[in-house]
Known about the structure:
By secondary structure, the chain is an alpha+beta fold. Helices cover 20% and strands 28% of the residues.
Amino acid sequence: MTTALQPWAHYADLLKAAADIESALWLPDDPQLRAKLYRQFAMNLSQGYFLYFQSNADYPDWAPFENSVFLAQPNPDAVYYVAPIDGRGVYRVYGERGNAPVVGFAIGKNLIGMADPPGPGFHNYDLDDLHIEADGSFEVIFSSEKPADYQGNWRYLNPESDFMLVRQFSYDWGNEVDVRVAIERLDISGLKAPMGPDETDQLLRKLFDGYVKRLSKLCLDIVQNSRNKAPTHQMTLTDFSELGNSDSWPQAYFECTYDLAADEALILETELPEQHVYWNVQVIDALWNQAELVYRQSSLNGQQARLDSDGKFRAVLSLEDPGVPNWLDTDGNLQGLLIGRWYRCSSHPVPTLKKVKLADLRSHLPAETPKVTPDERQQALRRRREGAQLRRRW
């Protein structure tokens, strides 16, 4: 029987088109940045396998998505899982809540990298708005119409939806209990059929001739848009609804680009909202990759951060360790982005930034700012490594 399946060399050749975006790098002639782009291409292949081949809308399963191993601007405190769905179907999602500060579901169409342009996002549901049993277990039905006589948790599913995403944000790495979640489609029966040659051909083309290049181009476009949006070292605030979502998720982002010399530092300063469930700040490189987060302090959240006596949060972004508690390590990146989140906060302050010489840093910080010794830094990094690896990240 004749199939559409081609020799492997045919599919490998499809990857060559990704080279077209190299000229869009922040510094196109920088070999280190180009090497990171190639690494990102490899990452896209790894991520794309899960998205295209692991499961389908009739027989869904959760796949790791944009988590720390996959680089492309994951929230360092987060784990994300995504499952393919058909918005015309009926899905049961069930599991155990755990105790991380934030757990929720996002429903949308055209996941980033899988279509150009991605989106739209349709609905975001906080798990804590569901009825949760005393033992932490929960169950919810997603469908376009509520099943007759059904009295349990139900959430609307837009018929155009093609993915469901679970997001969890952790504060106390390694010590919190992660969410446990399962999914099944209720209006489909029978055994899952094996994937045939024709479907394999179609999905390889989508992965090799689309996703690998498209995701990295999207990352580079986001970096360029941030550079165009505001001057370097000037924070902007973006509401979640401004990101192509049709409903609100109680989160806002602050963001800026940075461009430092090796002997410079950037001081971030902000007030905190009076009420806040969760907040953080993270370092992103010039390809929209999260900086190394397990072995470097490239992010801080509301539990990890030290506040000054005036209630403000002050952090220092620099290449070298400045010997302060709230160091944001650039992981060798002199150009990139700073991104932070306010979730379920009573206000959304916009942090200020000040560039100074690293040698003069102490004169620009409160006198109470502690000095962190190399031994203390190593102890803090050890706690970070342990917490990062003890929690489920992918």
